Amino acid sequence: MIWRCDLVPQYEAYRDEIHEAIDRVLHTGRYILASEVAAFEREFADYLGVKHGVGVANATDGLTLTLMALGIQSGDEVITTPFTAIPTVSAILDAGARPVFVDICADTFLMDCEKVAAAITPRTKAIMPVHIFGNVLDVPRLREVAGPAIPIIEDASQSHGSTFRGRQSGSMGDVGVFSFYPTKNLGAYGDGGMIVTNSAELSDRLRLLRMYGMRDKDHIVINGVNSRLDELQAAILRVKLKHLDAMNRRRNAMASRYRKELRPDLFTHQHISDKVVSNYHVFVSKFRGDRAAFMQSMDALQIQTNIYYVVPLHLQEANRFLKYKRGDLPAAEALCGSAVALPLYPELPDDTLSHIIQCINDWKSP
Known about the structure:
Elements: H1 8-13, H2 15-26, H3 35-48, E1 52-56, H4 59-69, E2 77-80, H5 87-94, E3 98-101, H6 116-119, E4 124-128, H7 139-146, E5 153-155, E6 163-164, E7 167-168, E8 175-179, E9 193-197, H8 200-209, E10 214-216, E11 219-220, H9 231-241, H10 244-261, E12 267-269, E13 276-277, E14 283-287, H11 291-300, H12 330-336, E15 339-342, H13 350-361
Parallel strand pairs: 2-3, 2-4, 5-8
Antiparallel strand pairs: 1-9, 6-7, 6-13, 8-9, 10-11, 12-14, 14-15
């Protein structure tokens, strides 16, 4: 099977560096919030061009802790997109707030900034855009629409290394949150996340919240939780961070081939603005035909494809209490009915990519 994402070749490519990093940690005997986490927080913040990084257990916690640190609570509203993975909304609910969905632009798959103003109410306490599949929202435009007072929390879980007008995703709003889930462009060998910000006050509060609210082992100054990036994952991520730009360039080269060589009658590709450099976390396009038949045919040819996302979040059963109905957010609903993800990861060989493109172009509708 040609997997949509295969993690083993990446491990093989950096095996020696990874083993050296793991061995370095094991020889210290210190596994929680020690030198590796501190170093990775600095290095990742420097990579993004921000002042502070706070390592946490996962990006969902990162979003939840950010909302907590901003004082968001029951009765508050957070504007976000329905076209994303469930953790974005899980975090809003975990903080006690209510998600308010704004439809996407049909071509970019990103939140439609021009629809945000109509969703703002006196209860709106934050806006949480998602840089989906590595495409980057125009955060400066969102700031213009939202005004100066409402915090913007960038869910950058899928956009490590993506840029907008040369600025890194996650660095343009008040806060950025990244996931290091294994399949991400910068992936750990387990869960992990990072909150980034230029606010020293917010950074300090987040550090307290991730560690029970402890200033030190004897003094608890606020009530927090246990959400810490561990030393082993930080050491592995430090290795991979050095290779991130090269891996993203490879992803771009492969995406360019898909865009140029796939039959245009079969796909409408995600629009990437000339202001954006995407990391192509996932290569998702709208399929212009019988998607189920196409995916079944690819599976028979041992080529894995996926759907992102089968059901938009406003129509998920768990979110019925939000009172959305089909037709409320038509662009997101239509995209869920046509989107398909093709194999793309940095170590995918060129001849395998050529084989995938040939198989797709040879496909005939039943």
